Amino acid sequence: MLPDRIPADAALFLDFDGCLVEIAPTPDAVRVPPELPPVLSRLHDRLGGAVALISGRAAGDLRRFLPGFPGAVAGSHGAELSLPGQPVRPVMAADGFDVARLQDRVRQLAAPHPALLVEPKPHGVVLHYRAAPDLGGWVTQAMIRLAGDYPMLALQPAKMAVELRPAGAGKDRALAGLMAQPPFAGRLPVYAGDDLTDEAAIAEAQALGGFGVKVGPGDSAARHRLPDPAAVLRWLEDAA
Ligand SMILES: O=P(O)(O)OC[C@H]1O[C@H](O[C@H]2O[C@H](CO)[C@@H](O)[C@H](O)[C@H]2O)[C@H](O)[C@@H](O)[C@@H]1O
Q1: Which end of the chain is more exposed for a tag (fewer CB within 10 A), N or C?
Q2: ipTM over 0.95
């Protein structure tokens, strides 16, 4: 079912890849539609500043793609927070391991397979197999084995990728944390996202009396659905 117009008392939480931008062959190849930044700015004004991005991406990465975005950004699945005008800060960095060493170990794993792509993150690492889908099973097993050495990290399957991220992080916790503070507190949480990692945040938004919007195909607990990022943009434009 298509979502209604975004209510004026909404707190709007948006995923990035697959929701605001189409999935691309590599993380750096995504294209931000030119209409998107002004629409996000207008919505930010209209909703009293209660618009945030909640993404698996590093927060700095998101600020680079949307440099003028005036709202809050929760990055690395909520392990980092970037409030407007403030530097990115860790919310729950996983302690007790050397992140550079972990990233080196993943690079070594990937070395025999040049089509694999290693994406280092401030608190973890992603191994992408979009350019070699046949290696998906191998990547998953290799990352599961590696995860055994890192109890403070959680294995996060994603679209054509497997990630190790801080075990305590989660988009649901990021949403709950923002909803506890101004300008989000007291508003109706609305969360839109396309991936498995978004389901916890969709459930959290709905548990707090709001609603979730699943973008694209696949099972979801969301009450509403939009087919793709182009439809998300139209939905945002209608309310901006
Ligand atoms: O939470 P999101 O904003 O949806 O971010 C999830 C992950 O997105 C990126 O990877 C995915 O998108 C890439 C670009 O379209 C694609 O090439 C890749 O196959 C997808 O898995 C990003 O690179 C990750 O860090 C995010 O966790």
Answers
A1: N
A2: yes
For residue 118, what are the domain limits?
99-166
CA of 57 to the centre of ligand 1 (A): 7
Active site residue 194: no
Which strands, in side-by-side order, build the sheet including 117-121? Answer: 117-121, 124-128, 161-166, 153-158
Please state the domain count of the chain.
2
In a domain, 200, yes or no: yes
Q: What is the CATH number of the domain that holds 123?
A: 3.30.70.1020
pTM for the whole structure: 0.96
In terms of domains, do 146 and 37 share one?
Answer: no
Residue 24 Cβ inside 6 Å of ligand 1? The answer reads yes
Supply the pLDDT for residue 63: 96
Q: Which of 85, 66, 88, 65 is nearest to 75 (CA)?
A: 88
